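Re: Re: ligand-bound prediction request (bumping)

Still looking for help on this. To restate: I need the protein modeled with PRP bound, output as structure tokens. Inputs repeated here so nobody has to scroll up.
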Amino acid sequence: MALRTLLTEDRIQKRVAEIGAEIDRDYPDGNLYLICILKGACLFHADLARAIHRDAFFDFIGISSYGRGKTTSGQVQLTKDLDISIEDAHVLIVEDIVDSGVTLDYLTRLLKQRHPRSVEIAALLDKPERRLRPVAVRYVGFEIPDEFVVGYGLDYAERYRNLREVCVLEGEPDYN
Ligand code: PRP
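Reply:
Sorry for the wait, this slipped through. Here it is.
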């Protein structure tokens, strides 16, 4: 398998800084909770949090729908719930990629049942042509074509998450 760079570290960091500034403008008051969807969003969450200059709370939620393969199974599993109550808080779900929309559709419904003040989504990557469920993403880093991408938190069979750039994974799988 080979890696082809799609988004350089520099492009990613510039865009993350822009989204952080937008969030600062959009949320002048009230508690802001940055909810990281494990595991893919961990690097975006860490960088976005530092690009936001107002106070923000962190929490983490585990959702899995992919397993080891390259496409969604359509089955969403909650693997770790939030530790904190989000009642009356502004919730910003931080996601690495919106593909079919199944994960975010499930998660936004779940969190809205807990009476937050607002629920919005920030996603680094968006593949609009893959959508099966409509999802309103307020902050999008980059719209990308329907290619399998890894890096900057995104994996293939748990590999490549620590790349600083986003790359297209080309060729046949090799599990070595
Ligand atoms: C990936 C990705 C998103 C989701 C997007 O998670 O991180 O959460 O799939 O796909 P969807 O829009 O089709 O639902 P994955 O289940 O691979 O877990 P991971 O973040 O731990 O890699």
